[in-house]
Amino acid sequence: MSLGAEDWVEAANEALASGGVDAVRVEPLAEGLGVTKGSFYWHFADRGALLDAVLTSWERRATAAIIELVDARHETPRARLKGLLDVTQMPAAGARIEHAIRVWGARDAAIQRRLAKIDVTRERYVRELLVASGLEKTLAETRARILYLVLIGEFTWVSHGGAASNAAFREELFTLVTAKR
Amino acid sequence: MSLGAEDWVEAANEALASGGVDAVRVEPLAEGLGVTKGSFYWHFADRGALLDAVLTSWERRATAAIIELVDARHETPRARLKGLLDVTQMPAAGARIEHAIRVWGARDAAIQRRLAKIDVTRERYVRELLVASGLEKTLAETRARILYLVLIGEFTWVSHGGAASNAAFREELFTLVTAKR
DNA sequence: ACCTGAACACCGTTCAAGT
DNA sequence: ACCTGAACACCGTTCAAGT
């Protein structure tokens, strides 16, 4: 059985989640897949092309996919906000990939730009939900920022072994960010 | 002029801030310092020993140093909480080092344990300030968690180029976490 | 006390040759 | 269409030898 590009991307995803970008190495990946490293270059131009494919597949999962899921599951703005908080409860592998990508962005301007787009999309989504649930525009902006930073913080926290937040925590966070002035 | 261990640690710090753990490489560091890589092994047993020295120096700066600074500058619990929020406004290099260390912790159990200790210390400090400013114990715990996650989130955010939060943001965050029930 | 220089291992990349 | 195998460059590590 010969391999396709997807097999390499999948293996790369696992390596990324457990060891960061620099753990995505052609030779160990090849060994894990049972081929020689030379064969990698049939599927990709170089290691960078593999990393690009990994990022592209993550971009889809990490924004559109989440927003669609939350929108499909819940009706009202408040219910959607609550639903979004539960998304943080995703399996640690997801959090570890997100975190690894953020570090990667810290040292690669191109990745940084792509990450920024995703952050803008997500934060806008939160802000719109807050406005839709009755907050004044400027206040909604600040509150969206707070909520979004908590989410990023939790990704980071969970990714290095911290316990995921519990229901009481999410309840309190929800109460705070949706509180009317 | 010959070098001391501190010169290598300082160079390693810069590499860590700009490129993560894996950018801390003996050969480029040696080149930057104007010596051959062989001379590195006079000062350190191996690359791991250098990384350990880097982490130890960061541990001091990142907890005790910050808490002492805040305590020295401000008197009341509320003023100290506010002062702590301003610490996030530290230069981006500091945030980038913190972030790089967190990623590092994501793949290294020993680093993870040392990081966890620091997180416990910092979160306890926030919780105590909240209790001292009149919040009930359980609520203080939840609010401390929220505040601490926002801080971690902001480190992450700033480290990949996001704008640091402004005064209005910190004001609102302060209001929320200190609000009496 | 601190550094050089040569050696070796590991992994990214290339490429001619195989099936 | 997909893979092997050998080659070369880069960097971590060792160590005998230099000053």
Global geometry of chain A:
elongated
User: How many DSSP-defined strands of chain A?
Assistant: 0
Q: Quote the distance from N terminus to C terminus of chain A.
A: 63 Å
Q: What order do the helices and strands of chain A follow?
A: HHHHHHHHH
Average pLDDT, all residues of chain A: 90
The percent range for helix content of chain A is over 70%
Main sheet specs of chain A: none
Q: What structural class is derived from the secondary structure elements of chain A?
A: mainly alpha
Query: What oligomeric assembly is this protein in?
Result: homodimer
Proportion of beta-strand residues of chain A: under 5%
SS element count, helices of chain A: 9
User: For the largest interface in this structure, which chains are involved and how many residues does each contribute?
Assistant: A-B, 44 and 44 residues
Q: Give unreliable regions of chain A as ranges.
A: none
Q: Evaluate the radius of gyration of chain A.
A: 19 Å
Overall description:
The structure is a homodimer of 181-residue chains. Chain A is mainly alpha-helical and 181 residues long. In chain A, 77% of the residues lie in helices and 0% in strands. The first copy, chain A, contains 9 helices and no strands. The first copy, chain A, is elongated. The relative contact order of chain A is 0.10. The model of chain A has no long low-confidence stretch (mean pLDDT 90). The A-B interface holds A 18-20, 22-23, 96, 99-100, 102-103, 105-107, 112, 115-116, 119, 139, 142-143, 145-146, 148-157, 159-162, 165, 168-169, 172-173, 176-177, 179 and B 18-20, 22-23, 96, 99-100, 102-103, 105-107, 112, 115-116, 119, 139, 142-143, 145-146, 148-157, 159-162, 165, 168-169, 172-173, 176-177, 179. Chain A binds a DNA duplex (19 and 19 nucleotides) through residues 2-3, 25-28, 35-43, 46-47.
